[in-house]
Structures are given as C-alpha cells and as structure tokens.
Amino acid sequence: MKPSFLIALLTICFFSAKAQDNSKKIKEIKLDFANMELDVPGTLNGLSEGSLYRFVVENINLNLYEVSVNHGDTSYSKAIDPPSFNSPLLSVLPDLVEGIKKSSVEAPLAELTKQSFLAYAPADGPFKKMNNVDLRKIKAFEQLSNTEGKLLTLVNSITESEKSLNQIKTGLHLYRLYESGIDVSKPDFTIYQALDSMQNHIKELSNSRVAIINEGIEITRITEQYAGIISSDEAVKSHLNEVKTIYETIVDHIDKTLSAYDSEQINNLLENTVYTIGKRNSVYKSAPFQLNGEQAKLRYTIEPRDKKYNLQSYSSEILFPGKTKTFFTVGMAFYGATLSDEAYSISTETAVDGTITYQLVNEDLSKIEMGMAALLRGGKRLENKNLSLQFAFGPGVSITNKMRPRFLIGGGFSYGNKHRVALDTGLIIGEVNRLSQQVRKGGVNESTSQLTVSDLKAGGFLSLGYHFNL
C-alpha cells in the first residue's frame, strides 16, 4: 500500500470521526443575566434534526429567581423566609421567675431567726437552747432557699445557651440574605460550624434539664422531710409553693425549647440556608433539548421566587436556526445566446456555352439563439432581503433551429422572498454548425454534399428564469 494512499485514508477517517463527535456536542444558547446580553452562537445555524441544545443563564442569583424553559423546571428551593422567633426564648425566663416570687427569701428567714432568739433569751443571761420546731423551720427555709438559688443559677446558664442559639438562627438568616444579593456582611462561619455549635448548646440545655430535675427531686425530699412544718407554718408553705412554681416554669420552658430545636426543626432551619449557598452568582443550565424539525422556538421565563421581593420578571423567545442568508435552488430559465449555426447553400449558374458554375451562398441567419435551461443556483441574500446575488450552472437546450444540448455557467441576481425571478448571464457552451474546412479551401462543385460540420463553441448568454426558495 502506498504511503500517500494510507495518509489520505487516515485523514478521511480523522475528519469523519471529528464530524461525528461534533454532532454529539450540546450547543448552548447563553444569556448573561447580569448584563442582559444574549449570545446565540453561529453554530446553531448548523443544527440539523436530532441535534441537541440547551439554554444557559450565567450570572444569575438562583435564590431570588427561578428559570423556566418551554415548561417549568424543577425548583430546588423555595422563597427565603425570615427567621421565626415564635419558639420559647429563655432570655425572658428571668422575668417570668421574678414575677413568680412574691417576696424575698431573706426577709422571712431573718424575721423567723430574730423571733426565735428573742423568745428564749433572758435580758441578763445566756441564750436558752431554741426548741426543735424553730430549728426545723430555719433549716426548711435554708434548704428551700438553696434549691431556689440553684434553679436561678441554672436559669442564667440556660438563658446564655438560648441566646447563643438565637444568634446562630439570626446568623443563618443573614447568610441567606447575603446569598440573595442583599448588601449585608457575610457571616464568618460555615453551615457545619453552625450545626456543631447548635448541637453543643442543645447538649448544654439537656444537661441543664437533668440538673433541674435533680432539684425537683430535692424539692420532693424537702416536702416530705418537713411535711409537719410546711402544714403548720404559712411562711414556709408559701416559700415552698414559690420554689415549686419556679421549678415547674423552668421545666415547662426548657421542654418547649428543646422541642423547638429537635432534629426535624434543626433540619428545617438549616435546609433553606444550605440550598442558598453558592447561588448568589451562579449558572443555570437546562436539560438538553432535541431539535425535531427544521426550526425550534425556545421560550424562557425568569421570575422572582416570591412577589414580596419586588423584582422584575423577564420573558422572551428565540427562534433558531435562523433562516440562512445562503441558498441553493433549481429553477427553469429562458435564455438568449450568441451561439448560432452558420447556414450555407449552393447556387448554380449556367453559361451560354452550357458551363455550370457553382457558388457558395451564406444564408446570413440570425446570430441569436433561443433556448431553455434548468439551472442550479446558489447564492446569498444581500442587505435588501428580497435581493440576492447568485451563481448558476446547468444544462440547456436550444429551440431556435435544431434542438441541441447546451451547458450554461454564470451568475446574476434574484429578486423575491420565496418566489424569485432570476436574471443571469455568463458562458454557454455547445455544438454549432460551421463551414467545413474542405469547402472553405476548395470551394464547391457538383460533388459537394456537406457544407458544414459540427463544432464545439462558446458564447455568451442572458437568461430570465424562476426559482423557489424555502
């Protein structure tokens, strides 16, 4: 096998494979949303039936807008909601606890101690030993006050944890606002850090609840141990009820808070933020579409995800492939050409002596030939959409004298949109009759039977025709 043939074969295979690969590529129609510039590549004009294309929107905030192409695409996130502060906030718990306390603990305790000492202390002698009832009252007050103090300490700890959770919640909302294009500072934490911090604070709340329950057990123990004192002394009884109410209030409050931050609630809180990350300035790509005809009409709509954003909607459509300026058509034409046959005849004259003289006579026929042609035309539209420049070639046949085949090649202009009138000019080639060299050199005599011979000649033509363009 010759090397040149092998190289030619490999070249053909390479370009064939490349053409097949290009046919599989997805053509992209790109819209720069930030600058409102549409880029329709010229390669779309080369799309054929079965080709794939897609719509791409660049520099768009998909947190604010949703894109629909021909039909509604799947929306992967909903409108950004403001943070909800309907969950219990333990930052208000100290106020609730203060509202429960009817009187300070120290005043009844001091008053009871003073009365007990005065009742048993003579003016001029040492204190007598206080009776057991008074000591039990003081101990009951002291233990209740100690329990109350621990509860109030836990309130402060719980409040700090709750404040931290609300700060994270607000930070997540600011994160969503930032990703939505609002001019706010981007929070300096990640979603993973927010989740980890929330879990730590919820763990602290759970530990605080265990400590509170332990204080509840202590309240039960005090109630049982000093049941007699509590039933007979209104001050101790009132203080016990106060501590119980504080305990129940804190337990109810912390239970509501923990339920507000269970796994489902945390997932809902983080979900919207997770979906917004990285879409502040992102790219939308539609699924590929297939061209199933000669032209496709791509409709797209870009709408705000929520009307409350007061953002503008955008909608348009693109028709492609566009009608190409180039064309190829076949049409009929009538032509006139400078090709023509030469016609001669022989005249005879008889002299007095009987001599016959032969003379060649030129019939001087028309030098214009008429005929019909089927021309293949290819060209391009000019700025005036109805006017186009073209080349033309094809077979023809003369109809003036004899029907003879002709070949025409040239160019010209066409006028019209689909139905076009064409005016062409150029070169026409065909056989014509010319005086034979024998006659030209030797003249004619009684034996001359053929005056002309066929010869291939070229001339000019001017044609007027019609062709139809899709």
TrEMBL record:
Q: Which UniProt keywords apply?
A: Signal
Please state the span of the N-terminal signal peptide per the UniProt entry.
1-19
Keyword check for Signal: yes
> In its UniProt entry, what is this protein called?
Outer membrane protein beta-barrel domain-containing protein
Name the source's superkingdom: Bacteria
